[in-house]
Amino acid sequence: MQNEDPFSVRVGTFFLTMGFGTFILFVLSDIADQPDFDFLFGALLLIGGGWYLRRNKVKPAPSGRFSLLKRLRKDGIKGIKPAGKPVEEDDDEGE
Fold first, then answer.
1. How far is CA 11 from its chain centroid?
2. Does pTM surpass 0.70?
3. CB-based contacts of 26, cutoff 8 Å, min separation 6
4. Cα-Cα-Cα-Cα dihedral sign, residues 12, 15, 17, 20
């Protein structure tokens, strides 16, 4: 499988991964009752930079999977016909 993402998108993914890892280190340091806020600030910078670089990622073309389900959901109740004989309504309900 060939990766067609631009270099900046791949670097952004790397920064996001490192940012989440750094955030986990901050949480673990907080659990140990020795919070190191350098981890928190570093995580915020890495996640922010990763998001900035990754925001221009091109969305993949739709694959067409589950097209029947999507069509049924889009049509809603209108596309489904009730089973059995239709019930006839009386116009003389109040008499």
1. 20
2. no
3. 35, 36, 37, 39, 40, 43
4. negative
CA dist list (Å): 88 to 83, 85, 91, 92: 14, 9, 10, 12
How many residues would you count in the chain? 95
Instruction: Provide the 3-class DSSP secondary structure of residue 15.
Output: helix
Measure the CA–CA gap between 36 and 33, rounded to whole angstroms. Answer: 9
DSSP secondary structure code for residue 60 in this structure: P
pLDDT tens for 22-68 read: 999 999 999 999 999 999 999 999 999 999 999 888 887 777 787 77
Q: Report residue 46 as tokens.
A: 């890495």
Distance CA 4, CA 62 (A): 16
Q: Would you give the DSSP letter of residue 79?
A: G
